[in-house]
Amino acid sequence: MGIPAPSCTPLHETPVPSPSAVPRYGSDAIALMLRELGVPYVALNPGASYRGLHDSLVNLLGNERPQMLLCLHEESAVAIAQGYAKVTGRMMGAVLHSNVGLMHATMAIFNAWCDRVPMLLLGATGPVDASARRPWIDWIHTAADQGALIRDYTKWDDQPASVAASLESILRGYRMTTTAPQAPVYVCLDAGLQEQPLATTPPLPALERHPPPRVVEPPPSAVAEIAAALAGAASPLLLIGRVANDAGSFARRVELAERVGARVITDLKTAASFPVPHPLHPHPAGIYIAPEAAPLIRDADVIVSLDWVDLAGSLRAGCNGALPAAKIVHCSMDAYLHRGWSKDYQALAPAEITLHADPDRLVAALVAALPEAPRVRPATPAAVTAPAAPPAASAAAPAAAPGDERLPIADMARIVSTALGAHRPSYVRLPLGWPGDCCRFAEPLDFIGFDGGGGIGSGPGMTVGAALALRGSGRLPIAVLGDGDYLMGLTALWTAVHYRIPLLIVVSNNQSFFNDEIHQERMARLRGRPVENKWVGLRMDDPAIDLAQLARGQGARGYGPVRDANALRAALDDAVRDVGGGAVVVIDVRVAPEYARSVSSSLVKHLPQQDPSGPITDAAHSTSGGKP
Ligand SMILES: Cc1ncc(C[n+]2csc(CCOP(=O)(O)OP(=O)(O)O)c2C)c(N)n1
Ligand SMILES: [Mg+2]
Prior knowledge:
Blueprint (H helix, E strand, L loop, with lengths): L25 H11 L4 E4 L6 H10 L6 E4 L3 H15 L4 E4 L1 H17 L5 E6 L11 H4 L15 E3 L4 H15 L7 E6 H5 L24 H13 L3 E5 L6 H14 L2 E4 L27 H6 L2 E5 L4 H8 L8 E5 L21 E3 L3 H11 L39 H12 L4 E5 L29 H12 L5 E7 H7 L2 H7 L4 E7 L4 H14 L19 H6 L4 E6 L2 H16 L3 E7 L38
Parallel strand pairs: 1-2, 1-3, 3-4, 4-6, 5-6, 7-8, 7-9, 9-10, 10-11, 12-13, 13-14, 14-16, 15-16
């Protein structure tokens, strides 16, 4: 049972008709180009550098196709576009004010770059003609080569010098960002050019003369070689990374694994790509290779990587730093994007066969090349659609001072996944410390992957963008965010409330940038210094921040702080009802500062070497006394 479609209608800010709605300015032509390309939305925070384009979007296009989505921070605007692309596979736009708006947006652009999502970023500067600049403000908001700020983490950028060149530039950028390997592009529009009056606007380039490039199929000889290797393998392994999230591609991956009896490992950095409960997927997906999954890598004789992020690092993680003996097939087009500034290309991956091809096309070709009868039938096919329930929440929470009770994070996770299981949740984000057994993704879009660049603060914006894309799908957009992530990006919620984009955020509130407590604990242990001090400079307490109030202050529903299992269940019931009715809901759940040990290394890289069986807790400092 999914949640019903929201009962509210999306807000459209409809402008009064303009008496002079004929294209007469440079930005009018640019706005028409955006419509021609089918850009559905442009997320933005305003600025005088693109007041010409803003006017054209409102008074020429009537704020339709594209529709503007007002954001309270440029970082949210880009995160929203990223969330939208992660769900739909399609791009939307973001418009960023001159240099300062672009500076605000940089981290989000880096996330989108590392996540390899399509996105059209429009910027502005100038007037480039200094004689046309207003005093002071136009000078501080004009930069030479503005694209240089983000050139190292965009696929392409341009600053066209005429209106006709702007149209070509936007079309070129659109084709580039939507062509694999995908990544954001940036087109910087001179303010003077936008505001330039025109006797007639230049014709839009004919789209049919600039079609998307035909996709090249993987070479048949390579397909035959890989198929033969898989067919002859005793322990084949598929590592599934950045792949398409349509149902057909998802089903073909299952088909391939079953035909050759391959084990499968999936990655929480990327979206749900294979049914986790499937018998051929024996271990929970993780951010890192979990110790229990390592033997699959060590013992494999053929490994096929389908655009797996950090192939070399994962292979070494599975083999104690060595490389596996297996024959390795690496199918990815990512090398086309590799540059020098950011090392997001990861360690150099060994491979006997490297294919610069679309991984889903390789899967389709392999399925066509391999015999139909499954070599190894899954033991219990029913398990594919009926994942085993996670262990029940533990009965007893750790002792805490009266009024300061907190849920173990594993309990919170199990209660959330059980309560939402029947409502077709689409997990947009999971916090560090989320237990692997609560990642029971069985279908595409059950999980949409991580932030790409590890930039905290993107969670709320990405949730809004994903929820925008999921609107009316019957799915429940849910993000479980760390309190630090929530607090850095929470003004994105207003955009969701304003445009009636229903969603649920559960904040895993340990009142800390807790990931760094683990690092400080590690430092203290290594250096023989007091572990008790690990919280200093990291705890967000005194005063405790009222996270639900911060949601209510933006017109969202805010529940909590919730401190026990029953209160959480009740809040989730209310939240599901509210989201079904169109609301934006935040539940603040007080969780103990700990990462669930059952997560093993799925979401955490370096757990300190302490009690190997118990959770990583803040036992070293006293929460029982209330304040650290
Ligand atoms: C923009 C940015 N600043 C700082 C960091 C370093 N960092 C990584 S995880 C983390 C803590 C995040 O806190 P929270 O979201 O509350 O999650 P928790 O660790 O408490 O589970 C920080 C500060 C980062 N990755 N990105
Ligand atoms: Mg935290």
